[in-house]
Amino acid sequence: MSRPLEFILARQWSELLSVPVLLFDADLRLVFFNDAAGLYLGRSFNETGSMDPQEWRAAFPMTDATPEGSPLAIAQETGVPAQADLTLESLAGRRRVRVTAWPIDGLTGSRVGLLATLHPTTT
Fold first, then answer.
1. How far from chain centre, in Å, is Cα 53?
2. Is-above-0.85 flag for pTM?
3. Three-point CA angle 4, 23, 60, nearest 5°
4. For strand 30-33 and strand 82-90, is the pairing parallel, antiparallel, or unpaired?
5. Are 27 and 8 contacting, i.e. CB atoms less than 8 angstroms apart?
6. Cross-strand bridge partners of residue 105
7. Distance, CA of 62 to CA of 26 (rounded, Å)
8. What is the per-residue DSSP string for the chain?
9. Which pLDDT tens digit goes with each residue over 41-93?
10. Which pLDDT value is given to residue 64?
11. Sign of the four-CA dihedral 1, 69, 48, 59
């Protein structure tokens, strides 16, 4: 499947970061996450591959948010970054994380996807 240039560049950039990064397409399909995110999720992207929203929500549930109230949904709907402190449950265990989601818009103005980061939090 061909991806927009902005999305390809976001993936390449995220591979260089030590910050956990997850990339979603415009349909909220999880299409990539870097090795740092894999440590939070308890598995690598090579193990999971792309996942549709139902798959990744079941594999990596965020117990404090509804799908409609998640930072991803808010950023996708409003076109502005959104964040929330959530509880992530995964093979790596249960932990509180701050999820920040940014919309990725193409040069034509269309939404091509979302980039999300995870950070530990104590709240």
1. 11
2. yes
3. 150
4. unpaired
5. no
6. 111
7. 20
8. ----HHHHHHHHHHHT-SS-EEEEETT--EEEE-HHHHHHHTS-HHHH--B-HHHHHHHS-BTT--GGGSHHHHHHHHSS-EEEEEEEEETTEEEEEEEEEEEEE-TTS-EEEEEEEEEE---
9. 999 999 999 999 999 999 998 888 777 789 999 999 999 999 999 999 888 88
10. 82
11. negative
**Token pair recorded at residue 82:** 């959104």
CA distance 66 to 49: 24
**Number of C-beta neighbours around residue 99 at 10 A:** 23
Dist CA 18 CA 20 (whole Å): 6
**Taking a C-beta distance cutoff of 8 angstroms, is the pair 24, 116 a contact?**
yes
**Sign (positive or negative) of CA dihedral 54, 69, 75, 89:** negative
